[in-house]
Protein 1
Amino acid sequence: MSSRFTTALTIYAFAALGVFLLAAPWSPVWESATTAYLPTVAGSWLRSGFTRGFVSGLGALNVAVAWSEARAFVRWPDGRPS
């Protein structure tokens, strides 16, 4: 595989995972999955605002890394922005 293709695939993976992690904890699917499948202490911990915020923060970090990599990916070889 070429280096540019691998870099583009990495950017896509980080961005897609980041968007998923940003949105998933606040969706109804998260609530129903943790209520139905984890009726224990772990379920209540996963439904807490702290855990949801932490997971969303990881998603925001992934999006930031993808954005940074994408900006470096589209620069000209001499370093000037495109």
Protein 2
Amino acid sequence: MKEATLISIATEALVTTIKIAGPILIASLVVGLVVSLIQSITQIQDFTLTFVPKLAAIALVIFVAGHFMLNTFIGFTDSLYHQIPSLLSSG
């Protein structure tokens, strides 16, 4: 296997990972910042106050963007399976 092919596959894997995990991480970050801001304003320090809204936001993101994330992962896996014959013949 050539280095360029390996780098291409690794780059595609990282981009796919960012596309799949990005919406969940961004939603969690935004909700965490908003809850942290509310906690600092009201001086309420409760751990469940940060956990429950993050969990609800992540569930909402998976419900809304789950189809996109699944199609992205299936597309990546499908492209890997289609590359197998060319990877085996070039070695």
Protein 3
Amino acid sequence: MTKADIVERVHQKTGFNKKESFDLVESVFEVMKETLAGGEDLKLSGFGNFKVRQKADRRGRNPQTGEAITIEARRILSFKPSHVLKSSLNK
């Protein structure tokens, strides 16, 4: 499913025109991005939790040369689905 598919479904379910539906979907995604970029967790009841975690530097190996390298520290996004979502997937 693409963002355009989501906009189409919002359009069908709400009766908003496509421009309003697109703006609504864009606004929701923008708020989600800003929240996560600010380091806050995002909890959507009935859907799941998005969490930003910090990964430390670690040792790695270049698979082509076998040379040891350091993989830089970075922030990653993890998602844990809610029990409601899990149960609806496993009906």
